Amino acid sequence: MVIRLKTCHKLRCKFSDLILHLDQEYMFFLQHYAFFITLSDLLFVNNSISIKKGARAYYISTIILNFVEKILIIMNLKIRLSLMNFLEFAVWGAYLTSMGTYLVKIGMADQIGWFYAVQGIVSIFMPAIMGIVADRWMPAQRLLGLCHLLAAIFMFATAYYGFVAMGQIQGGTSVAGTFAGSMIFPLYSLSVAFYMPTLALSNSVAYTALTQANMDTVKDFPPIRVFGTVGFICTMWFVDLMGFQPNQNQFVVSGIFSVILFLYSFTLPACPTSGVTERKSVADQLGLRAFSLFKQKKMAIFFFFSMLLGVSLQITNGFANPFITSFESIPEYADTFGVNHANILISLSQISETCCILLIPFFMKRFGIKNVMLIAMFAWVLRFGLFGLGNPGSGVWLFVLSMIVYGVAFDFFNISGSLFVDKSTDVHMRSSAQGLFMLMTNGIGATVGTLSAQAIVNHFTVDGVTNWQTCWYVFAAYALVVGVAFAIVFHPKGVDKE
Asked: E strand or H helix at 247, and its extent?
């Protein structure tokens, strides 16, 4: 009988290993693993002579309950990560597309570029630094929560001084040069400095949790990321319908969601640090080895074009809302839906994202990273060009097409690029590499893009009237040049297709 029990246990272990191996390629791992382990446990209990008949029912019920618990954990993981992404992007959606209109309202239209550029400036160093911290010293989920708490504090302070500034405007006082007006930008910058690293940190938390569960990040991450877009849309609509687009309350909404995510971060799956204790060089201690990726031709070209394409990322976020609302000065368009609810119209872009994200696994597997990113680049050409052609009246359908195209332009580049970095780097530097990717796109690229866009808008503005059509055509021409150059130069191998 002892031999029989040992054999049963060995078969159980071998069967478990088999399931683990097979599931990496073909199955939803934990679901099937839990089922087969439960089945083997039941067989083991049923065949064990050391367990009295009266106790078998207890052991069998315990095994079944453990099976149910494992299934709930599986379901819970995706739900928990989905909620994390919802909150992460709800914070951003509260102000990202409407802030330009608010700045116009308080007389800071000529500084729109700087408010959006600061997101890029802090992204040059903050995501990399926080990625280093997450890799070496503090679990990513804890760092994610801490960053959101600090971002919330400074965002509430921004809203307070914004409220004071609006009061001065109502009293006939110009914001320019006032103490309240001068405090808005630095406080907003500090909030953004702690928020921007969380975009990479949330990716690291999700990738780590999925990897620990032996799930396929290429297949399982995009549906989770969709809920980030849903969160972004929800706060966009909320700000629009509550009438917060032209005032500082949009910052209050953002701060509230940051606090919620801070509290929620304590429930997220643990992301262990490297825990390496041996003596290392300064570069190793600071996590600067991620920059060694530039020694690889493939990665260097990838990061360079990530920067060039990153130029396009914040242009429509900063200028689409002021552009659409500028039609209110034309009687023909003053009462149109787009002019009165620009945020809702723009939210079609994010709705498009929810569909496009789900297409990424198919496109990545079938066409590879190069073709997926090429599709994104030429989608940017259409995004800008359609803005130049459309209007809120008879041409509103061109605006709608531009919003639909945005999902392809943004997600096919950002999500696919993030997955490419994850698959192309060693596990010990993945958080740092994600931070480096953010540095090149939302950092250097977005900074150059928003400041350049502001210069172009200022150049084509005469007596307070902007020739928006020409501006959008200039942006489209730039995206076209980058796309053609990328098609010629970038030739990835190895992980191009998953």
From this structure: none
Burial class (CB in 10 A: 0-12, 13-18, 19+), 2: exposed
SS (H, E, C) 392-433: CCCCHHHHHHHHHHHHHHHHHHHHHHHHHHHHHCCHHHHHHH
DSSP 140-179: HHHHHHHHHHHHHHHHHHHHHHHHHHHHHHHTT--STTSH
Containing H/E element for 19? Answer: helix 2-26
User: What does the pLDDT read at residue 62?
Assistant: 63
CA angle 318, 322, 323 (to 5 degrees): 100
**Superfamily per CATH, domain 70-489:** MFS general substrate transporter like domains (1.20.1250.20)
Tell me the C-alpha distance between 206 and 381, whole Å. 31
- CA–CA distance, 127 with 143 (Å, rounded to integer): 11
State pLDDT tens for residues 219-239: 777 778 778 888 888 898 898
Q: Tell me if residue 462 falls in helix, strand or coil.
A: strand
**Residue at token pair 């550029």:** 117
Structure token pair of residue 179? 């103490």
184 CB-near residues (< 8 Å, 6+ apart): 108, 158, 161, 162, 165
Mean pLDDT, to the nearest integer, of 186-197? 90
Query: Looking at the whole model, is its pTM more than 0.90?
Result: no
Query: For residue 216, how many other CB atoms are within 10 A of its CB?
Result: 16
Cα angle 405-411-412, degrees, rounded to a multiple of 5 = 85
Q: And the tokens for 479?
A: 């995206």
Write down the domain spans for the chain. 2-51, 70-489
Per-residue model confidence (pLDDT) at position 480 = 94
- From the list 374, 96, 108, the residue with the least C-alpha distance to 236 is 96
Residue 17 identity: D
Structure tokens that stand for 96 in this block: 């990202």
Distance CA 6, CA 21 (A): 23
Residues with Cβ within 8 Å of residue 6, at least 6 apart in sequence: none
Q: Residue 466: beta bridge partners?
A: 461
Average pLDDT over residues 152-168: 86
Site of tokens 């160093």: 125
